[in-house]
Amino acid sequence: MYFHCLVRSYGTSIFLVLFVLPLIGLYAHDIQQSIRLPTFADFDINEDFNIDSVDIHSGGDDETGEFAEKLTSTSTLRAVALMRGPQTYGVVRFEQHDSGPTHLTGFVSGLYPMSQHGFHVHQYKVVGGNCESAGEHYNPTNQPHGGPNSPVSHVGDFGNLHSDAKGTSQIDLISDKVSLRGKYSIIGRSVVVHLRPDDLGTGYNQESRKSGNSGGRIACGTINFVSINKS
């Protein structure tokens, strides 16, 4: 009896290894191949575009580069960030007319279903796909962390992304704090999606006033200049 059970168990293991597991691997590969991440070509951006070639922050945060001065004229500016992470990806578009508010549109997928994730502008561009290279929240005015409707907050405190049952968040928001032009332009910086919800600075610890206790970074992208259309 023991021998028959052992043979049956051994035969089942061989069947799983030889037939079932390869099929699962092929299925997973097909799913991976079906996920098409956006590229710069989708937005008419040259593959060799390099924000470092544009003199926008040459004088640091307290001065304005030559390119940023040109952006103060009457025009519509557009920028885009291609979001990448181990499992999370998306596109965030930015558009600003004259010196008015900035309109953000796009999506982020690969989130936990029906969840919230902190969403902010960070100080530096992303280097080598490492979201930690983005630095801390962009905060040139030295304010405590808050939400998009808080009286005081960081420049790029967008609050939370809200995912649907498929783990996708549609982005459509207007910010009168963030700008693509002038002294505190966010072009060449980055936008980051965090693992946990942002408490909007309402927590009772120091981290709340710094980052909203939103945890690790699951996707990020550099905010690249796309176009200027004169009005």
Brief write-up:
The protein has 231 residues and is of the alpha+beta class. It contains 3 helices and 9 strands; from the N terminus they run H-H-E-E-E-E-E-E-E-H-E-E. Helices cover 19% and strands 28% of the residues.
Structure description:
- It holds the Pfam family Sod_Cu.
- The protein contains three helices and nine strands.
- By secondary structure, the protein is α+β, with helices and mostly antiparallel strands.
- It has two domains: 34 residues; 191 residues, Immunoglobulin-like.
- Strands 6-3-2-1-9 form a five-stranded antiparallel beta sheet, with no helix packed on it. A four-stranded antiparallel beta sheet has the order 5-4-7-8, with no helix packed on it.
- It is globular and about 40 Å long.
- The N terminus is likely disordered.
Summarize the SSE layout with pairings:
Blueprint: H1 2-34, H2 66-70, E1 75-84, E2 89-97, E3 102-109, E4 116-122, E5 157-162, E6 169-175, E7 190-194, H3 206-211, E8 217-222, E9 224-230
Antiparallel strand pairs: 1-2, 1-9, 2-3, 3-6, 4-5, 4-7, 7-8
Order of helices and strands: HHEEEEEEEHEE
Percent of sequence in beta strands: 25-35%
The major pleated sheet works out as: 5 strands, antiparallel
Report the CATH superfamily of the largest domain.
Superoxide dismutase, copper/zinc binding domain
Q: Please state the overall shape, judged from the principal axes of the Cα atoms.
A: globular
CATH architecture designation of the largest domain: Sandwich
Stretches with pLDDT under 50, minimum 5 residues: 2-7, 15-66
End-to-end span in angstroms?
Answer: 86 Å
Number of domains: 2
Number of strands: 9
Determine the CATH topology of the largest domain: Immunoglobulin-like
Mean pLDDT: 77
CATH class of the largest domain equals Mainly Beta
Structural class: alpha+beta
Q: Helix count, per DSSP?
A: 3
Strand order of the largest sheet: 6-3-2-1-9
- Rounded to the nearest angstrom, the radius of gyration is 22 Å
The level of helicity is 10-25%
